[in-house]
Structures are given as C-alpha cells and as structure tokens.
Amino acid sequence: MSRRPDTEPVIELRGVEKHYTMGEFTVKALQKVNLKIYPGDYISILGPSGGGKSTMLNILGCLDQPTIGEYFLSGTDVSHLSDDDLSKVRGKELGFIFQSYNLIQQLTVVENIEVPLYYQGVSEKESREIAIELATKVGLGKRLDHRPTELSGGQQQRVAIARALSCDPAVILADEATGNLDSKSGGDILQIFDELNAEGKTLIMITHDEAMADRTPRVIRLKDGEVAFDTYDEPN
Amino acid sequence: MKLLDIISGVSLFRLKRAVILGVKSLWMHKLRSMLTAMGIVFGVCSVIAMLAIGEGASYEAQQQIKDLGSQNVILESVKPTNNTTAGEQERSLILEYGLTYHDILQMQATVPGIEITVPSREVKDFLWNRTNSVDGVVLGTVSWYPTMKNRDVVRGRFFTKLEMASSAPVCVLTESLARQLFPLEEPIGLTVRMRTSYFRVIGVIEDDPAVAASAEGMESSSQSSSEGMEMMVPMSTLKDHFGDVLFKYRSGSFEAIKVELHEVTVRIEDPDQVKPAALAIQHILERNHKDVDYKMTVPLDLLQRAERTKQIFNIVLGSIAAISLLVGGIGIMNIMLATVTERTREIGIRRALGAKKKDIVTQFLIETVMLSGAGGLLGVALGIAIPVVITHFAGMKTVIEFWAPAMAFSISVMTGVLFGIYPAFRAADMNPVEALRHE
pLDDT higher for B364 or B252? Predict the structure, then answer.
C-alpha cells in the first residue's frame, strides 16, 4: 500500500458538499468530502453509478462549485471564484480527458491540441510548436492535419490526451477515458497514463472499472456521495 | 458582461484566430450558411438596385427641370378658354390675347432683381428650302436666347444685338429642322423661305432637350409634327415680315390672332428671390389680364416638388430595405440559435478547456457578422450589377450613389451584430456541465 507523501497537496477539499435542488427535494450528491491530492498522485476514483463520481469530477474540474466547503487548487481557494477566473483556472491548471473524446469536429488534430493554448493567449507560433511536439509524443506526428472523423477511437483519445497536456496542467482528470475503446486501444491509452505518471504528472481517473483499482497506487471509492475508501487513509 | 467590454477585450491575434475558426465552422455547413446569407444578399441587393433605379428616374426628371433654369420664371401665352370673351372677340374678328410688351416693361419697373428677359414670339407655317418644305415655327427672339435656355449653338453662330437692331433677315435652325430641310447640304449660308420672306441661315442650335426626349419615344410620328422644327430670327425681323396679327389658314378655316409675345423668360438674379419675384410677377399679370391667357412656370417650384417626391420615395424605399433586412436578420438569428443548440457540446468542451464567456460570445458573434457581412458583400456586388444590366438592356437611366452600397453593407453587418447578440449570449450562458453532457 502507498503512503501519504510529505509534500503540500495540489488539491485539497475541505468539507465539500454539493446539493442539488429538484423541486421540493434536495439531493446531496457529495457529503463531507475531505480529500488531499498530492503532486504525482495516480488515483482511481471508483464507485457505483449515482455514487457521486460525476459530481466529484465536476467539482475537481472547476466546472461546478461546491455548495458548502472549500476547494484549494495549487494553494488557491477556487470555490468562490468568478466565472471568468474559474475558466482561467480550468485552462491553466487542469487537463480534461473525456469518455467520448470531445474533440472539436471542424478542427484538425493539431488545432484541437491548440485550443487550450489559444484561450491562455499563447502566441500562434509557440502554440503550434507545442501542439506538434505533443502530437508526436502521443504517436500522431504523421496525422497533424487529419480531422477527428478520419481517426480511430484510440487515436482520437490520444489527441485528447495531447490536448490535456498542452498547457502543462497541475492535474489531469480522465473521465472513463477507456470506456469507449476496445481492450487493445484502451490498454494503449492506459500505457500512456502510466508513462505520464512516471514523468511526475498527477492523474485522477474517474471510472467504474474495478480493474483500474489494481493499476493505480491510490484508490478512492465513493458511495452515496461520501468517500468510503481512500488508500492513504488505510493503516499500512 | 457588456458587449463593449467583449469587443475591447479581443486582441488582434485572437480576432484573427476567431475569424479562421468562424470560416471553418461556417464551411462545415456550406449550404446552410449560404442559404442563411441569402436573406441578407437579397435585402442588400434590392435596396441598392431600387435606389439606383429611383435615383436614375428622378435624376432625369430633375435634369429636365434644371434645363429650364432654376433661376427662371417662364411665362407663356395661352388661348383663353373663357367663352364670353371669346364671343366678344369673334365680333372683332381678331383674337387678341397673351403677354404684351407692356407686361414686360411693368415687370422691369416694379419687380426688383430681374436680370434679363427673353421675349419670344412665334409664327407657325411651312418653311421652304426650294421645293423641300417642313411644317415649322419661326421664333422671334433675342440674341441671348441660347444662354438663357441652356442650349448650345452647334454650328455657325447665333444672331447679334446689331442684327436685332437692324432687323436683319438671318435665322438659326434647330438640328432636327436643319436635318429635315437640308438633308444633303450644309445649311449655313443658304436661305429658308417662309411665305414671301427669305432668311439667311447663320447657325444651327441644338434641339430643345424636352422635345428631343419626347420625340425619341414617338420616332415615326415626330416627322409630321412641327414640334422641335424651330427657326429663330430676331424679334424685330419677325415683326417686320409678318406684322402683329397672325393669320392662320388651317383645314379650310380662317383665324386671325394677335399675340404680342408667345413666351417670356425672366431670370431672377438672386436664387433666393425667385419665389417672391414669381409672386410679384403673378400680381402684375393678374392686374393686366382679365382672363387667364397666360401660363406661369417656375422651374424651382417644380424642382422642389420633385425633390419632395424623391424624399417620399426614399422613405418608402428605406422602409422596404428595413423590412427586408429585418427578415434577413431574423433568418440569421434563427439559424444561429439552431447552430448554438447543435454546438452545445462544442461550447461545453471549450468552456472546460478554459474559454471564458466572452470568448464564446465573440466566437458566435464573429460567425454571424461574417455571415451577414459576406451576404452584404455579395448583395452589394449584385446590387451594382443589376442596375448596370438594366441600363444596358432596358435603356433606363440608373444612378448608383457612392453611399448606397456603403450604407447597405454597413447595415447588413449591423444586422448581423444585432441579431447575433442573443444567440451568442445564449451560447455563453450555458452551464458547462450540462453543455458537456449534451448529446
């Protein structure tokens, strides 16, 4: 079992709760979540559907804000930021990888990778260089000008990974990243994740695939909106 | 989030990228984009084309009025229609009516600012060149007639004051009369006969523009008419040769008419004084003439009336333009709203990847403006082409004012902005979480 590192956490959730009001009912999607994620962590967040995985992803990804509690990302409290500042944090500190790749259809491989750089205001020349480098890194150096429709699922997901890496984010969030792929392609993607983690990247994978638990050093299980299990909290 | 903040916050680099992206997005749905822009194309094109045609029509009308001279007041003698007077005059055998020298003298004495007067008197009869004859008019007038009437002497010269004083038997022919009477010869130096008098041709003057324009429409029938077949001689010469009383023998009937002056053109020095002077002249004529045996035309009045008509026309046109662009704008808005819904997921992705609300607004606004701008450009091109084609094939005069395409184009772009704002803000206001989940 892994040990809790001694460094400052890159993500810290303090008493985070997320409530949704549906008519007269209030659904508590997340309850009393206290969580510290450290640089270099490689985490699977597991749980049954309805367990709060998606809400967790939205909160961690700064796509949504907690109803109660505080969220520190790289030392800043992001739970009360304005919409614009939140957008900036998302672009700069976080990399997203989605189950359905979510590439922009009208853009080529290299242009898709450039999207986060564009919103960060990186110059055209520089962003093109970064995009080509990353595309080469994920093995798509020869398909720079292809459109998503001309690529296989595995290739599309690799574009998405390159895109997630483009702004050199503090944390990469992967939502069922292999869910739409066959086992071979999925395996390749996971291989890339392993390599990224080996390079020191912080990866959080949200999945319902139990097999993932064996792959990542740290496992967090959510149940009914609460953290039911965290590898770091277990006595060694 | 204010629109101005958004516009000012966009750097040139981002604008360029957003434009490229916009082109790509629009290009993905070529047919749809094209059809959407069509609304604007036809709006802009019809505005420009209609303006050009309207402008051309009113230009022609105004030109004709301007040819009469905007500083002029034109007085003409007309046969009175009053029955009782006509009966009285029948007894005296000579029909006497119209403007007199007395009128002119009184005007010159009492109306301030009268520059020159051009009196003229006409005698209608056959004009002869040996055995060749034309039903024409001899016009007795003054030496400054061409300047006052804005008509050029094309060959030879007009008669002089000296020739007026000496009642010289000289004449100037209009172009069409010269053509009819001397089809094969150069008329200058030759003689024209009317009744028993001979006149030496000293010059050829261009046709009256109004007569020339109406003759163009009739072509064959114009040959039989005496309209435009004018021969000008000094006033005194006319009086010497034909006297004060004109006899007419037409289709068996006999008529004796005494008209001192057929037409008087009065020029007013100060253009601002034309209207008061015209009023004063009218008072004099009303006092001197019991019957209305004269007609007064103030070209300035006509011009102003024509301008008012044009203004009304422009308002009507403006409304049509506004409506067509409104329809085009609604079309654009409709499609943009559909596009926003269709691209909800893309919006979600972009928001997740760091796009601010204003980035999304800019992106969609640029797309609408490009759509309407492209439509506007195409509309301008078509709108300029249509009047050219009309002029070429239908022979109608069209005038494209330089501001018309510029205005139509900027309105089309503004339509894009106006109708793009709502869809753009709707796109930006989407919840990123929901947008990402959108199928």
Answer: B364
Residue numbers in A near B32 (CB within 8 A):
none
Which has more pLDDT, B388 or B11?
B388
Interface test with B, best of A119, A128, A171 (most B CBs within 10 A): A119
Q: Which residues of B189-210 are buried (b: 16+ CB within 10 A; e: fewer)?
A: eeebebeebebebbbbbbbbbe
Comparing CB atoms, the residue among B25, B28, B355 nearest residue A87 is B355
Question: What does the block give as tokens for A25?
Answer: 């009912």
pLDDT of amino acid B253: 66
Contacts of A63 in chain B (CB under 8 A): 351-352, 432-433, 436
Task: Determine which helix (DSSP H) or strand (DSSP E) holds B192, and give its type and residue range.
Answer: strand B191-194
Tokens 């500083």 appear where? B71
**CA separation for the pair A57, A171 (Å, rounded):** 12
Q: Say yes or no: A66 contacts chain B, CB-CB below 8 A.
A: no
Q: What is the pLDDT of residues B321-368, one digit of tens each?
A: 778 888 888 988 998 899 899 889 999 999 999 999 999 999 999 999
Query: In the structure encoding, which two tokens stand for residue B17, read together?
Result: 């990228």
Interstrand relation of B253-258 and B191-194 (parallel, antiparallel or unpaired): unpaired
Report CA A23 to chain centroid distance, whole Å.
Answer: 31
Q: How far, CA to CA in Å, does B121 sit from each of B101, B102, B239, B264? A: 11, 15, 9, 9
What are the start-end ranges of the E strands in B130-239?
132-141, 153-156, 170-174, 191-194, 197-205, 230-234
Contact residues on chain B for A84, CB-CB shorter than 8 A: 356-358
Q: Is the pLDDT confidence value at B226 over 80?
A: no
Which residues on chain A are in Cβ contact (under 8 Å) with B432? Answer: 63-64
Single-letter amino acid code for the residue at B159 = F
Q: Which two tokens stand for residue B26?
A: 């629009």
Rounded to two decimals, what is the model's pTM? 0.71
| Mean pLDDT (10-residue bins), chain A, 236 residues | 78 92 87 91 89 89 91 91 91 92 91 92 90 93 93 93 92 90 90 92 90 87 88 74
Does the beta carbon of A163 lie under 8 angstroms from any beta carbon of chain B? yes
Burial of B133 (C-beta count, 10 Å sphere; 0-12/13-18/19+): middle
Task: Judge whether residue B377 has pLDDT over 60.
Answer: yes
What ranges make up the beta strands (E) of A75-180? Answer: 76-77, 94-97, 171-175
Contact assignment for A87 to B351 by CB distance below 8 Å: yes
- Is B208 in a helix, a strand, or coil? coil
Interface test with B, best of A118, A149, A173 (most B CBs within 10 A): A118
Whether A88 and chain B come into contact, CB under 8 Å, resolves to yes
Q: Considering only the beta carbons, identify the residue of A90, A102, A124 that sits closest to B354.
A: A90
What pLDDT sits at residue B92? 55
Cα separation, A179 vs B265, whole angstroms:
97
Instruction: Measure A91 CA to nearest chain B CA, in Å.
Output: 4
Residues of chain B contacting A165 with CB distance shorter than 8 Å: none
Edge-to-edge strand ranges of the sheet holding A226-230: A94-97, A171-175, A202-206, A42-46, A218-223, A226-230
Which run of H or of E encompasses B403?
helix B403-428
A-B contacts (CB, under 8 Å): 72
* Single-letter residue type at B371: L
**Is A52 in CB contact (< 8 Å) with chain B?**
no
Nearest-CA neighbor of B200 among B173, B240, B179?
B173
User: Could you give all domains of chain A from N- to C-terminal order, each with its CATH number?
Assistant: 40-64+86-230 (3.40.50.300)
